[in-house]
What does this fold into?
Amino acid sequence: MSVDVAHIRPARPKDAPALASAYEDAWRGAYQGIIPHLSLERMLARRNLRWWQQSLHKRAPLLVLDFRGEAAGYVTFGRCRMSRTPYQGEIFELYLHPTYQGLGLGTKLFDGARLRLGEMRIKGLLVWALADNEAACGFYLRLGGKPIAEGAESFGDTTLRKIAFAWA
It folds into this structure.
């Protein structure tokens, strides 16, 4: 008999503290040294505990990775924001607390979002990652994502290159 200590489920309001912590720690780990310090700090300050509490009451598509009863990461998804593309779905954010990275749990989150998009009859998937975020780009490449487009994201006076990865 196996016991699944990590599973994907919809977010609940009581997840707000764990998600606020996962978000901050994941963003610091992923973007410190890439996004300018002041811009990063401002983004983190906006996504505080109160923001998460309010956001979880809106019922937007948000799945969490539940690890032994605690929300260790999350994924948000929906219809693709990019016009004129054959990819109907998009993962907007996928973040996992650094403690849980490198264990295949991010793949569980990714697969959970793909499954839900499929249930919504949304075909194809796109996700953007900053080009300098080598861990994220490597993750999406390992999952079979194909780089299909490039863009730019501005953070204060700094503009960073981003890459769109896609799955049919």
